[in-house]
UniProtKB/TrEMBL annotation:
Species for this entry: Paraburkholderia phytofirmans (strain DSM 17436 / LMG 22146 / PsJN)
PANTHER family registered for this protein in UniProt: SENSOR HISTIDINE KINASE YKOH, SENSOR PROTEIN
Parts forming coiled coils: none
Domain of life: Bacteria
InterPro entries in the cross-refs: CztS_silS_copS (IPR006290), HAMP_dom (IPR003660), HATPase_C_sf (IPR036890), HATPase_dom (IPR003594), His_kinase_dom (IPR005467), HisK_dim/P_dom (IPR003661), HisK_dim/P_sf (IPR036097), Sig_transdc_His_kin-like_C (IPR004358)
Name listed for the protein in its UniProt record: Sensor protein
Reaction equation(s) it catalyzes: ATP + protein L-histidine = ADP + protein N-phospho-L-histidine
Compositionally biased region (Polar residues): 475-485
Annotated ranges, domain HAMP: 180-233
Entry's transmembrane regions: 12-32, 155-178
Domain named Histidine kinase: residues: 241-454
């Protein structure tokens, strides 16, 4: 069951208010009880002092009779104050001392007594007066009732409890209203988020008027929307490009087959048609294999079958493999630098082949392609540079995107289906590296990197290279097939 934040906050505020009210009320209750106890003692002291003076000066039987009358006049009818005098002489005797169990004794002759006959507790003060004149030594006891204090404390306690309950209820209602007002930006944020849909991918949360507590959340959500929008856009573009790339060979296959079926053909004509169809099938298979490879890379697959190799030796092997394309294009290649790295040889060779074929295709005759290997603490970079037409910054940003070509017309679609540089990027990421492209001073440079060996890894022997692992890691059993990318 979903719980309302406003209700939860209001309930917590009410509980906090109730706790505070209880704490403050308890303090007030104790202070009031102490003050009432103090006032009761002061009242008892005043009455004791007056009774003491009256009894002290009753030195003759006549004066004692007058003292008894004064004590009687001072005694209220409700019994809240009691005067008692006792002595060895029965004549000098007045009232009945308060008897019962003593609850508490205090210094100064004060005692709290619970009467044996029932009723409210009494606060008593006892004093002994020495003999004076005809009056013998007497013991004076003055007692006052706790009843007024008890009634006051009961009324105060009930009023305090009622006020605390009403105050907590008021805090509950007011805090609920205030919380709903405070959560209004969250409600608006929810409404804006619900407006986002595939048909309105550009919709973003308005963070201008949000409080600081929600601003980070909204910015994070907008960032997630940006990433989702980009992924959705790439998916749409990918689907459109796949459809375009596969439609061309399928159309060619259908056209050639229809032409072959229009009339009887010789064996040589049919063989020529089948050879042409086979080329298109090979092209479709290459596109499908490349897409499957990129899909595995997108799922975070890392390169396996890693071995410690000299990257210069691997690049030299690739240049040797591409000797014929280099000669046909009348292009030279120059290799500089070297570094050791732990790579999948098949994948690394495929990335080098794709970059070199890209450079060969965009070089003028008699030009020179430069391959430079540079190492730093974290990365080993392989840079392939060739002279060519300047590339605009807008194009540089997308050169490693799938199916991207700088030529809008796609005139070279038959030779290049636009996945070569995307595969280079995927291979670099599978080796914890990255890619980049630069165009300056008539030189276009494409760089991909792999993770450099750490000092700890340098002392750990790598797994032995085996052809099956390398083939499985790249999706190809040889570098020859990577040429079609």
């Amino acid at each position: 069951m979903n719980r309302s934040i406003a209700r939860r906050l209001a309930l917590m505020f009410a509980l906090v208010a109730l706790f505070v009210f209880t704490l403050v009320g308890t303090g007030l209750f104790l202070v009031l009880r102490t003050q009432l106890e103090h006032h009761l003692r002061e009242s008892l002291d005043d009455r004791t002092q007056i009774a003491r003076i009256i009894v002290y000066h009753a030195v003759t039987p006549e004066k004692w009779r007058m003292a008894r009358e004064k004590l009687t006049d001072m005694t209220p009818h409700d019994g809240s104050t009691v005067y008692a005098v006792s002595s060895a002489d029965p004549y000098f005797h007045y009232g009945t001392p308060v008897g019962g169990s003593v609850v508490t004794n205090w210094a100064g002759g004060y005692s709290r007594v619970m009467p044996s006959g029932g009723g409210q507790d009494m606060l008593t003060s006892t004093a002994t007066l020495p003999a004076y004149g005809a009056r013998p030594a007497v013991q004076l006891q003055v007692a006052v009732s706790y009843s007024p204090n008890v009634r006051t404390m009961r009324v105060f306690g009930l009023a305090l409890a009622a006020l605390s309950a009403l105050g907590s209820l008021a805090v509950l209602l007011l805090s609920y209203s205030v919380t709903r007002l405070g959560l209004a930006p969250l409600t608006r944020l929810t409404r804006d988020a619900s407006a986002v849909s595939p048909n309105n991918r550009s919709q973003r949360l308005n963070t201008a008027s949000l409080p600081l507590e929600l601003n980070d959340l909204a910015n994070s959500f907008n960032g997630a929307l940006e990433r989702l929008d980009g992924a959705y856009g790439r998916l749409e573009s990918f689907n459109a490009d796949v459809a375009h790339e596969l439609r061309t060979p399928v159309t060619i296959l259908i056209g050639q087959t229809e032409v072959a079926l229009t009339r009887n053909r010789s064996v040589d004509d049919l063989r020529h048609t089948l050879q042409s169809n086979l080329e298109e099938y090979e092209r479709m298979r290459a596109i499908i294999n490349d897409m499957l490879f990129l899909a595995r890379a997108d799922q975070g697959e890392r390169a396996t079958g890693l071995v410690d190799v000299s990257l210069a030796a691997e690049v030299a092997h690739t240049l040797e493999f591409l000797e014929i394309p280099l000669e046909e294009a009348r292009v030279r290649a120059q290799l500089r630098g070297d570094a050791m790295a732990r790579v999948n040889r098949s994948l690394f060779g495929r990335a080098c082949t794709n970059l070199l074929m890209n450079a060969i295709q965009h070089c003028e005759p008699d030009a020179e392609i430069s391959v430079t290997i540079v190492s730093d603490e974290d990365q080993v970079r392989v840079a392939v540079a060739n002279p060519g037409e300047p590339i605009s910054p807008d194009v540089l940003e997308h050169l490693f995107d799938r199916f991207y070509r700088a030529e809008v017309s796609r005139t070279n679609s038959r030779e290049n289906h636009g996945l070569g540089l995307a595969i280079v990027k995927a291979i670099a990421e599978m080796h914890r590296g990255s890619v980049s492209a630069q165009s300056a001073h008539g030189i276009n440079t494409f760089v991909f990197s792999v993770a450099a060996l750490s000092p700890m890894e340098a002392g750990v022997p790598a797994a032995r290279s085996n052809p099956s692992a390398a083939a499985d890691g790249s999706g190809y059993s040889s570098l020859a097939k990577s040429k079609s990318a």
